UniProtKB/TrEMBL annotation:
<comment type="function">
    <text>Allosteric enzyme that catalyzes the rate-limiting step in glycogen catabolism, the phosphorolytic cleavage of glycogen to produce glucose-1-phosphate, and plays a central role in maintaining cellular and organismal glucose homeostasis.</text>
</comment>
<dbReference type="InterPro" id="IPR000811">
    <property type="entry name" value="Glyco_trans_35"/>
</dbReference>
<keyword id="KW-0963">Cytoplasm</keyword>
<keyword id="KW-0119">Carbohydrate metabolism</keyword>
<dbReference type="GO" id="GO:0008184">
    <property type="term" value="F:glycogen phosphorylase activity"/>
</dbReference>
<dbReference type="GO" id="GO:0005737">
    <property type="term" value="C:cytoplasm"/>
</dbReference>
<dbReference type="InterPro" id="IPR011833">
    <property type="entry name" value="Glycg_phsphrylas"/>
</dbReference>
<dbReference type="InterPro" id="IPR035090">
    <property type="entry name" value="Pyridoxal_P_attach_site"/>
</dbReference>
<comment type="function">
    <text>Phosphorylase is an important allosteric enzyme in carbohydrate metabolism. Enzymes from different sources differ in their regulatory mechanisms and in their natural substrates. However, all known phosphorylases share catalytic and structural properties.</text>
</comment>
<keyword id="KW-0328">Glycosyltransferase</keyword>
<dbReference type="GO" id="GO:0005980">
    <property type="term" value="P:glycogen catabolic process"/>
</dbReference>
<keyword id="KW-0808">Transferase</keyword>
<comment type="similarity">
    <text>Belongs to the glycogen phosphorylase family.</text>
</comment>
<keyword id="KW-0021">Allosteric enzyme</keyword>
<keyword id="KW-0663">Pyridoxal phosphate</keyword>
<feature type="modified residue" description="N6-(pyridoxal phosphate)lysine">
    <location>
        <position position="654"/>
    </location>
</feature>
<dbReference type="Pfam" id="PF00343">
    <property type="entry name" value="Phosphorylase"/>
</dbReference>
Amino acid sequence: MNFDKAGFKNSFINQLQSMYGKGLEEADLYEQYMAFGACVREVISQNWIRTRQQYRSKNEKQVFYFSMEFLLGKLLDMYLIHLGLKEPCRQALAELGIDLAALAEAEPDAGLGNGGLGRLAACLLDSMAAMHLPGHGCGIRYKYGLFEQKIVDHHQVELPDNWLKNGYIWEYRKADKTVEVRFGGRITQIIQPDKWMFVHEDYEPVLAVPYDIPIVGYQNRTVNTLRLWSAEPAAIDFDLSSFNRGDYSRAVEYRHSVERISKILYPDDTHYEGRLLRLKQQYFFVSAGLQSILHCFKQRALPWRTLPEKVGVHINDTHPALAIPELMRLLIDEAGLGWEEAWNITVNTISYTNHTTMPEALEKWPVDMLEKLLPRIYLIIQEIHERLCRTVWDKTQSWDAVSEIAIIADGQVHMARLAVVGSYSVNGVAQIHSEILKNHTFAGFSRLYPYKFNNKTNGITHRRWLIKSNPALAELISRTIDSSWIKYPCDLIQLVNYAQDESLQQQFAAIKRQNKLKLAQFISNKYDIQVDVDSIFDVQVKRLHAYKRQILNVLHIMHLYNKLRENPQLDMVPRTFIFAGKAAPGYYIAKQTIKLIHVLAEKINHDTAIQGKLKVVFLENYSVSLAEMIISAADVSEQISTASKEASGTGNMKFMMNGAITIGTMDGANIEIKQAVGDANIVIFGLTAKQVFDYYHYGGYSAWDMYHNDPRIKTVMEQLVDGFFQEEREEFRPLYNDLLHNNDEFFVLKDFAAYCDAQRVVENKFRHSREWQKMALMNIAHSGIFSSDRMGSEYSVGIWKIKPVIITG
Ligand code: 26Q
């Protein structure tokens, strides 16, 4: 792209003037950021309009990825990289005395997601745009993203994330594309000569107003759209509605109840809770999204049966599964189709990704809640359920078989079952996870529809997680093997040829050390903790959850500390254990784990007897931006979930791409990372999924046996409750009880010894610097297949059947 530096500086100054009425010297950093953003918007919008025009005229199939979460992080840097404008803009701004990096920091993180599922959606959109694929996002414009985490007296406290407070430069309000979504009310059936008609009355109308965010392709003119819906009150005439004349307070109440719908992102990533507002959110964005898609489709004047040839609707977990009955409703009640035809169209339009097999995370909505909030939708779900049960009964004559697949059971609607029946493709997110789905979670369905089940192993965008977050490493790679890997990430494999090259190893080590220095500075400034840059940076960053086993890491740190206290001269490589992650506000054990990490850090970091060989740091408010800094500085990547529990994991991929060595279990994508890098370049330990299933099934595990037979375990467990770390002895009793009295559901104690051994292997490998750098380079070399470009093309070819549409300029 041609860049006119003088012109750019001019328009930047003009923007500052027109937006804030200020000259360059008067404007603060945020105002400068906004004005610069406005300049970038201009560049983007030209290609955006072009992309829309050409998608329309080429008339190819487009996919819409429906997700309750899009965890975008900051966008300015990504836009500049993708537009090829980063370096020229940096120079132009520098001439005005402005530091681009500081401007970029002023952008708020768009934190509209809890964790992996939301970040996956963001990586996928990035890859689709990079590969010219016509794919868009559909979600909710939460006023408040995931809470901001503060640590106060070692406790997590949650503060609202008011990310929109100063205006968001990357969104475009499209008021003219507003649609209405209807809640509550009654359904009456009118019997017409040829069919049934359903009339919806006394409903509460809600306006869904779209805000569009451009998704810019990598140096290719494609600009796709992420459409986020915001709920606004309808300008209903209260006199004409069911409301009483002049009922002012009801009007205010109505306004509030509407605005609540898109107010907050629910801060939970596993424990399903049947909250009415969350159900409202789900229907709200699904209905709005489908209405706008069908509206566009209608303008093309094609027969309805061709919808699946032109439109794909993908549901990111079951959160948007109401898309199935909603599409049925729109086709039957609005377009006038019969059930069979509508069902065919629906099933061939919708595809579904599952992200968990943990029973407590599978969504189930109480029948009475659904019936009351969405009466027409409930009728449709009932019909789907009855037809499905009849089919299975006719096939099997077995009540067990029927009850295994029933959508409505025990007064609840099983959303995952609805999602499987109502879509043509069901995929898991790693090989092992997809096998567990077929053979356990959805065994009944996989006998019924074996052809629906498939695997699409997760991926991450190497543009954010390497080019943006670790530019020095990206440049080193390009200097070594040329830059083809940026377009074809699997070309990273060429690094294998240089993994033993001493000069490359040294350059890689120098970059890693620089990144560690930057993180160490951050830690020193923010927490006044001094960490040794030459220590092993051993990192576990992710949501806090029992199955992710942060506690296993913690118990091992306690054990190392005990060894050091016993023998301060112990010959060990200094280690810095780094944690970050949020706990769901109501998840007591997860919050206690955060507290324990802090208590441990306090004691260890201040103990001069251990000569700084051990440091523990918890970085608060984990976010995409923080992840970028931490991951590029990591030596060791902790991926230690109980085998079978982590569907995939995607942090693991970000770490390997930045040359960290994984210590991990045979779970999720770790298994495929091991296949890719080979046994010599990863440290694996612990129970396998099969062993875990066997223990659950046949019993035979006793946490107390572990306690009695391994003195290391006994010591650290007792230290949890004997006042060793904490004056208030009972503080960590619940953790102690979970591991012992409740028999350690996630096999922490069972895997403890293997984990200690694995950590010793890691340490010994680190001592051999050249071997270590070689392993790191081998990890980077094999990380290409974990690019979300690979994932995105597998979805496009294997599920959606969509083709690239090259945008011309
Ligand atoms: C459900 C009901 C009520 C409130 C919240 C929720 C809810 C919200 C978010 C349930 C689940 C989530 C998010 C789940 C998630 O992030 N799963 C992760 O998905 C990643 C991408 O596939 C995987 O890599 C992780 O293994 C998986 O845990």
